[in-house]
Amino acid sequence: MFNSSVALIPARAGSKRLPNKNLLPVAGKPLIAWTIEAALASGCFDRVLVSTDSGALADIARAHGADVPFLRPAEFSSDTASSMDVIRHALAWLEAESGVPETTTLLQPTSPLRTAEDIRAAFARFRDTGADSVVSVSEAEHSPLWSNTLPHDGSLAGFLRPEVLGKRSQDLPTYYRLNGALYIARTASLLAQGGFLGANSYAYVMPAERAVDIDHRADLLLADILLREGEGS
Questions:
Q1: Residue 5: in which H helix or E strand, if any?
Q2: Minimal CA–CA distance to 183: which of 165, 195, 194?
Q3: What pLDDT score does 2 carry?
Q4: Which of 34, 87, 95, 158 has its CA 20 to 30 A from that of 181?
């Protein structure tokens, strides 16, 4: 475990697509509970802290073992507030209370299939590479080389690049996408560069089946099925 290591779980009440999604039941638990339990079980953190603007979410988070020492102000809970706004607010609170942690890990509650083992493996990658940050990625479901924008008339003229024409999917390079599940950083680097990606950042590759990100109801249903199957296996 890294000295002074904090996990930050951001969980605001508002959500346009799935209202109160962090409280919605998934495989018998509120969505946020899966991330809290994985963080605690990993053994990687001195403190697992939830940043929320909701009293109901705060109560649920505390019931599952997280620390909720403050309610997030409204200006950091709007649709326009960024993850870095939330991180800076939490770190400022920690600095005043007990000091800035050496490492800050962002664990979004919308990734309930990310496991304690994923967190430990990502920290091992962090340690072994000497990285300033490690961010989780998964193999892209479809190659972006098959994608393009469309004009107003929907014409497909020039839709694919010439180098892709006649190629099979398996002949194309493997692409990876950020999956939103796990962000680890040295706090000083995180604040200096204003984000988790920099020159000394490395990927932690997660399988797609653990990279479900809850954004729509279909995602919630898929996560529920996968978590129930995992618990029964």
A1: strand 5-10
A2: 195
A3: 57
A4: 95
- The residues, any chain, with a CB within 8 Å of residue 206's CB and separated by 6 or more, are 114, 118, 136, 137, 138, 179, 181, 182
Annotated catalytic residue within 17, 127, 161, 177 = 161
Mapped to the 3 state alphabet, what secondary structure does 106-175 carry? ECCCCCCCCCHHHHHHHHHHHHHHCCCEEEEEEECCCCHHHCCCCCCCCCCCCCCCCCCCCCCHHHCCCC
Whole-number Cα distances in Å, 171 to 140, 146, 163, 164, 183: 15, 12, 11, 9, 31
- Compute the distance between CA of residue 11 and CA of residue 23 in angstroms, rounded to an integer: 9
Distance CA 178, CA 167 (A): 25
Strands (DSSP E) contained in 37-76 are: 47-51
Burial status of residue 97 (CB atoms within 10 A of its CB: 0-12, 13-18, 19 or more):
exposed
Which is more confidently placed, 170 or 109?
109
Whether residue 168 lies in the annotated active site: no
* Other Cβ atoms within 10 Å of 221 Cβ, number: 12
The one-letter amino acid at 81: A
Task: Answer whether 38's CB lies under 8 Å from 105's CB.
Answer: no
Q: Determine phi and psi for 50, rounding to 5 degrees.
A: -105, 130
Q: Which residue has the tokens 């200096």?
A: 192
Each residue of 176-213: pLDDT tens digit? 999 999 999 999 999 999 999 999 999 999 999 999 99
Q: What is the pTM of this model?
A: 0.91
Distance CA 220, CA 30 (A): 11
